[in-house]
Amino acid sequence: MKRRDFITLLGSAMAWPLAARAQQAAMPVIGYLSARSRDDTSHLIAAFQHGLAESGYVEGRNVTIEYHFAIGQYDRLPAMATELVRRPVAVIATTGGEPAVQAAKAATSTIPIVFATGVDPVKQGLVASFNRPGGNVTGIVLFAAQLEPKRLGLLRDLAPQASTVGILLNPSFPASERQLLDIQEAARHLNVAIHVLRANTDREIDAAFETITQQRIPALAVVGSPFFDTRRDKLVALTARNAVPTMFQFREFVEAGGLKSYGANISEAYRQVGVYTGRVLKGDKPADLPVFQLTKFEFVINLKTAKALGVKISDNLLTLADEVIE
Fold first, then answer.
1. Which of 130, 125, 78, 121 is nearest to 97 (CA)?
2. Domains of the chain: total
3. CATH label of the domain that carries residue 307
4. Closest by alpha carbon to 205, among 244, 178, 175, 161?
């Protein structure tokens, strides 16, 4: 080989890794900000990635995702959002409820944000309207927080003779005051007293169940909160250990051994977040993407858990159920 050809070949060999690195660096970066944890949302992250793939984006191939998880500790979210903005990222996908999107919105007014939230985004000041969000924010609404009265009613149907029902509430969750007001109003209509148990730490959850046992509270509703979602296995285990029939917000609790749930299909919500995130990467503006509303809700019952608890599920409830796990 001639010396000139060798130098040309060597130069090409050295340039190839540099070109590959440049191509990799040119990949758009998605900032993924969650109020929950990676462990309890692995199936939801897969749904998000599936939605991205529908829009033509595959992690590691033509897009990079930088993940941040607050693990139910909402005060960590602002710093995480600031870090993503400083990165900077092309778009921020926020999941696990409104604490994540509120942190992202406070951190940037220019980087597009796609959210999944359980509360009305207009009332929360996230968007101007459902059809025309305006600004840099749009996303998916589960209306999880507004379903607490319905959950209480379904729990009451399970224990119609109960004069008191326990309510496990996370006082640190921004929507908790509204949730409690809705539950109190529903309880008056159902003619049932509620015993509110507040918890935003593992120790407080344990204390709440000690109270449930000591005061013989016959049934419990776990009010929707990303913190409780990160403690799914713990809560399901405690309801079984203390033999207390419990209503949850998402089917994941029932699949893990909880008794009942009523709420939106959260996997579908995360898939839609992935779809919208992909559309933003392709050039769509959040201001022009209508807020997507999930309108289908699932009532799921675990019959195996009911038998273990010694709870009789009425034929009426079984008829109402969208799915019965046996």
1. 121
2. 2
3. 3.40.50.2300
4. 244
Q: In which domain, by residue range, is 80 found?
A: 23-144+266-296
**Burial environment of residue 271 by CB neighbours within 10 A (0 to 12, 13 to 18, 19 or more):** buried
**Domain identity same for 152 and 136:** no
Asked if residue 195 and residue 120 are part of one domain, the reply reads no
**Nearest Cα residue to 242 out of 306, 309, 196, 195:** 309
For the whole model, what pTM was predicted? 0.84
Q: Which residues of 126-161 are buried (b: 16+ CB within 10 A; e: fewer)?
A: bbeeeeebebbbbbbbbbbbbbbbbbbbbbbebeee
Same domain flag for 95 and 221: no
DSSP 178-214: HHHHHHHHHHHHHT-EEEEEE-SSHHHHHHHHHHHHH
Go through 101-119 and write b for each residue having 16 or more CB atoms within 10 A of its CB, e for each that does not: bbbbbebbeebbbbbbbbb
* 277 close to 55: Cβ distance less than 8 angstroms: yes
- HSE of 37, CA atoms in CB hemisphere, 13 A: 12
Name which of 103, 76, 192, 96 is nearest 144 in CA terms.
96
Strand pairing category for 246-248 and 260-264: parallel
Does one domain contain both 57 and 170?
A: no
pLDDT tens track for 103-147: 999 999 999 999 999 888 998 899 999 999 999 999 999 876 678
Say whether pLDDT at 23 is over 80.
Answer: no
Q: How confident is the model at residue 20 (pLDDT cuts 50, 70, 90)?
A: very low
Mean pLDDT of 279-298: 94
